[in-house]
Amino acid sequence: MLKVLVTGGGGQLAQCIKSVAGLYPKLKFTYKTSSELDITNKDEVESTFNFQAFDYCINCAAYTNVDKAESEKELAYKINVLGPKYLAETCSKHQVTLIHVSTDFVFDGNASKPYKETDSTNPIGVYGKTKLEGEQQIINTIKNHFIIRTSWLYSEFGNNFLKTMLRLADQRDELGVVGDQIGSPTYAIDLAVVIVELIESKNNAYGVYHYSNKGVISWYDFAKEIFRLNQSNIQLNKIGTKDYPTPAKRPKYSVLDTSKISQILDKKTLNWKDSLVVAISKL
Ligand SMILES: NC(=O)C1=CN([C@@H]2O[C@H](COP(=O)(O)OP(=O)(O)OC[C@H]3O[C@@H](n4cnc5c(N)ncnc54)[C@H](OP(=O)(O)O)[C@@H]3O)[C@@H](O)[C@H]2O)C=CC1
Ligand SMILES: Cc1cn([C@H]2C[C@H](O)[C@@H](COP(=O)(O)OP(=O)(O)O[C@H]3O[C@@H](C)C(=O)[C@@H](O)[C@H]3O)O2)c(=O)[nH]c1=O
Questions:
Q1: Where in the numbering of this chain does the RmlD-like substrate binding domain appear (predicted)?
Q2: Residue in 7, 13, 18 to alter for ligand 1 test, most ligand atoms within 8 A of Cβ
């Protein structure tokens, strides 16, 4: 039986892992919410690993508010950089494999073809910068690590774009959504399955991986399909990034090349439209 610690236990991805965990009886999961384990508290991290033995740690804890990060730099740094550093140091000491989740926002978005793991990073906002520094702390500290960069996560759990769109459809007659930011939505349940299967496979090809659902669309296209499937009558307008000013800049193009993870898991990535149907059926 492999023992797996999941940090950030109350967040979207951790709840997705919880909802699929029952399908993997050979794995024993322990979830810690932010109040049970604050990853920015080195003593708490150490005592958690001293108290209980683990084979894997999935770090689902993060500061994920992209706009607020611009004005809460220190807090974002603590959670996205120091937290992963403490986890990496402690996992290394206890020979625990660390699986960390990162983001397409480590790239600047100036590319015109999907980003490979080896492409140069150049984050354009505080959130992306702290996530990249968190990755570097892990790479420099622990050999046994997987860093999985993903994009545009949504699910029936937590806060995400799908739920925001459905809420706004109930409240408004009309909505503008940006059509000039391109990426790939990812159903967090699909990512949860990939992470759990990676553990079950006991694969040791450590390193950085990209995972998203298949398909290249804009946020506008995503909203359009959400409203179509949900039979919402809201009038949806395609707008430009300049018409939707936000504190944080976001990459214009952040499509990830997922061929490396598909190879090690021998698994094709699922199409975003098919996964969206599943997610909406769970709401
Ligand atoms: N959401 C997205 O669109 C994307 C997310 N990612 C990455 O995926 C991962 C999971 O994201 P997601 O589940 O959506 O994020 P959520 O914001 O839903 O979950 C993050 C969790 O981290 C917890 N947390 C915050 N600070 C601490 C701390 N100091 N110690 C322990 N836990 C803490 C939060 O708890 P509390 O609420 O109590 O503060 C929350 O439960 C993150 O690494 C994120 O960067 C990557 C690409 C896209
Ligand atoms: C709510 C709303 C958003 N938008 C735009 C703003 C933004 O450019 C885009 C997505 O908005 P959100 O704020 O929901 O998503 P955002 O927080 O930018 O999502 C990002 O989160 C982090 C954590 C990641 O790691 C990224 O992969 C990505 O998923 O849609 C509109 O155009 N109209 C709207 O009504």
A1: 3-281
A2: 13
